Amino acid sequence: MTACPRCYNVGRAAAGIALALLAVVASWAGPAAGTARSQDLSHAPVKGMVTMIDLGADQCVPCKMMAPILEKLKKAYEGKAAIIFIDVWKNSDPARQYGIRAIPTQIFFDAGGREVHRHVGFMSEKDIVGQLAKMGVN
């Protein structure tokens, strides 16, 4: 393939093929260890409880960085807030359902199931805790 002399772009088709191959390779790699993982959306958001859903992928670098944070927060907020991870490379339905354009995306729901906050990209433990506190969860 020849790159455009102005922008060095090899074209959308080549980029699409590369992304498809990346998704296939990533699906073979398996899940990261020790993370709060779920693929079933029937329980999300959790009725009567503040819920944070992190839509990402096991092989996405910022998602991998967030995995231990999510696991820690899942334990710390047990019974007070639900922390759920969904791998959109394994199940793209939630990505379509929530209109996800980039991963990771964190969506916060109040106890009534209404979306109250959305963040795209890596989200630190401090920022997640801060958002949960704004929603009345301590």
Question: What are the SSEs and their pairings?
Answer:
Layout lengths: L11 H18 L20 E7 L4 H16 L4 E7 L5 H6 L6 E5 L5 E6 L4 H10 L4
Parallel strand pairs: 1-2
Antiparallel strand pairs: 1-3, 3-4
Q: Could you explain how this protein is built, in words?
A:
The chain is of the alpha+beta class. It folds into 2 domains: 1-30, no CATH class; 41-134, Glutaredoxin (3-Layer(aba) Sandwich). It has helices at 12-29, 61-76, 93-98, 125-134; strands at 50-56, 81-87, 105-109, 115-120. Strands 2-1-3-4 form a 4-stranded mixed sheet, covered by helices on one side. A hairpin with a 5-residue loop joins β3 and β4. The longest helix is centred in the first third of the chain and has 18 residues, at 12-29. The N and C termini lie far apart (55 Å). Residues 12-38 have low confidence and may be disordered.
> What is the name of the CATH class of the largest domain?
Alpha Beta
Tell me which CATH architecture of the largest domain applies here: 3-Layer(aba) Sandwich
Quote the average pLDDT: 81
Supply the helix-strand structural class: alpha+beta
- DSSP summary, beta strand count: 4
**Beta-strand fraction estimate:** 15-25%
Please tally the helical runs, counting DSSP H or I stretches of 4 or more residues.
4
Briefly note the CATH topology name of the largest domain.
Glutaredoxin
In percent, how helical is the residue content?
A: 25-40%
Write the CATH homologous superfamily of the largest domain: Glutaredoxin
In angstroms, what separates the terminal alpha carbons?
Answer: 55 Å
Radius of gyration, Cα only, in angstroms? 17 Å
Order of helices and strands: HEHEHEEH
Give the strand order of the largest sheet, numbering strands 1, 2, ... along the chain. 2-1-3-4
What composes the largest sheet?
4 strands, mixed
- Which consecutive residue ranges, at least 5 long each, have pLDDT under 50? 12-38
Count of the domains: 2
**Molecular shape:** globular
